[in-house]
């Protein structure tokens, strides 16, 4: 690691929500004002309009909006009746929300390793994890493949394994909404899909928000019931255990405006990622996108040899270039989850990645001069 060069240039945003806000300008103001005028802050008309447009975008029959990506995951498991004694298979290299919802319903998360190139669930490790679950007396119930950092998991392989083992497939596309697999949008695979509209996501609102996608007509009324305190014919009849999981109308109004420019932003993200790859491929391991997939580049994540990452982060910080590490601790090593089962090989790829990955600034408003500054700082820090 070479010494860094300190600069007085303004810090670069890691994710530039301000740039997007400036682009949308009065459109957001007018959308929010319409809600403030009609005052239907819960279940207003914008919520229904958003659900219709989200379903059309994803190629799914139904979209059910909700209060967060975590609640989207939980609603699906609750609607399916996943329960104590059931095993739900989750990648070990992901954000905690994917596994967090499994104990909510009393079930057991079983952790699966990931692939070293795409960072997504390893189908062979999933097979091993299913055997582990059976040996421990658990009922294999569902699998939650995650579209990490913006690209879909290997859905061809995972769907086949799920079919062979009678597993429900809950696709977690919180980071991958807008990406494609074999030409189909995420949100149109498996038994149901959950996504997040957290502000930092490629399609984000101005608070928390999420959605469920499914083609299962029978699942929709159950999901809506779960979302509204388990209500039956009205809100004062409760036929199941539920939650308060609604998306508020102001967030729906914001998302409608952002959805209108989403495809343009995906293209801009992809162009920035390609530029990074071309400029950094000789100094670090740059991201790999499966040829069957496209990515929305929720994060741009490189790999470095062990012991290099922290020095790079410090050097970049001195130059006003922010970085982030997703994820320093794999799920099966987290204190709250370490007692749960894992595929039988110790999940070596997840453990290795946790010490090697670092993410650089990535968003749709990353112009060439700013990106050149990031690239130059990375190359200086790595002595190239």
TrEMBL record:
Pfam families: DegT_DnrJ_EryC1
Oxidoreductase found in the keyword field: no
UniProt keywords, alphabetically: Aminotransferase, Cell cycle, Cell division, Pyridoxal phosphate, Transferase
GO molecular function: transaminase activity
SUPFAM superfamilies: PLP-dependent transferases (SSF53383)
GO biological process: cell division
Protein name, per record: DegT/DnrJ/EryC1/StrS family aminotransferase
Gene source species: Ancylobacter crimeensis
Upper lineage: Bacteria, Pseudomonadati, Pseudomonadota, Alphaproteobacteria, Hyphomicrobiales
């Amino acid at each position: 690691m070479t010494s860094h060069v300190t600069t007085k240039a303004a810090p670069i945003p890691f994710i530039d929500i301000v740039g997007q806000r400036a682009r949308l300008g009065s459109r957001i103001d007018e959308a929010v004002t319409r809600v403030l005028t009609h005052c239907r802050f819960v279940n207003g008309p914008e919520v229904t309009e958003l659900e219709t447009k989200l379903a059309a975008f994803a190629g799914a029959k139904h979209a059910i909006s909700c209060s967060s990506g975590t609640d989207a995951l939980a609603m699906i498991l609750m609607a399916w009746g996943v329960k104590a004694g059931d095993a739900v298979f989750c990648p070990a290299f992901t954000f905690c929300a994917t596994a967090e919802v499994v104990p909510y319903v009393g079930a057991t998360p079983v952790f699966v390793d990931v692939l070293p190139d795409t960072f997504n669930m390893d189908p062979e490790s999933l097979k091993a994890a299913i055997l582990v679950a059976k040996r421990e007396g658990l009922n294999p119930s569902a699998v939650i493949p995650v579209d990490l950092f913006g690209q879909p998991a290997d859905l061809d392989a995972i769907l086949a394994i799920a079919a062979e083992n009678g597993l429900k497939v809950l696709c977690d596309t919180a980071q991958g909404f807008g990406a494609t697999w074999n030409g189909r949008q995420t949100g149109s695979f498996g038994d149901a899909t959950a996504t997040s509209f957290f502000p930092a996501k490629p399609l984000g609102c101005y608070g928390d928000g999420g959605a469920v996608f499914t083609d299962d007509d029978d699942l929709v009324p159950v999901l809506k019931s779960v979302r509204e305190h388990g209500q039956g014919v009205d809100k004062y009849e409760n036929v199941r255990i539920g939650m308060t999981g609604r998306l508020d109308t102001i967030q729906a109004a914001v998302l409608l405006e952002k959805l209108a420019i989403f495809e343009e932003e995906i293209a801009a993200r992809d162009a920035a990622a390609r530029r990074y790859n071309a400029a950094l491929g000789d100094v670090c391991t740059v991201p790999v996108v499966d040829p069957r997939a496209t990515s929305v580049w929720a994060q741009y994540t490189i790999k470095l040899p062990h012991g290099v990452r922290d020095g790079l982060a410090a050097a970049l910080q001195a130059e006003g270039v922010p970085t982030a590490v997703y994820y320093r601790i794999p799920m099966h090593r987290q204190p709250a989850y370490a007692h749960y089962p894992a595929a039988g090989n110790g999940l070596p790829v997840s453990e290795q990645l946790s010490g090697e990955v670092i993410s650089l600034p990535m968003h749709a408003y990353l112009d060439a001069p700013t990106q050149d500054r990031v690239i130059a700082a990375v190359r200086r820090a790595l002595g190239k």
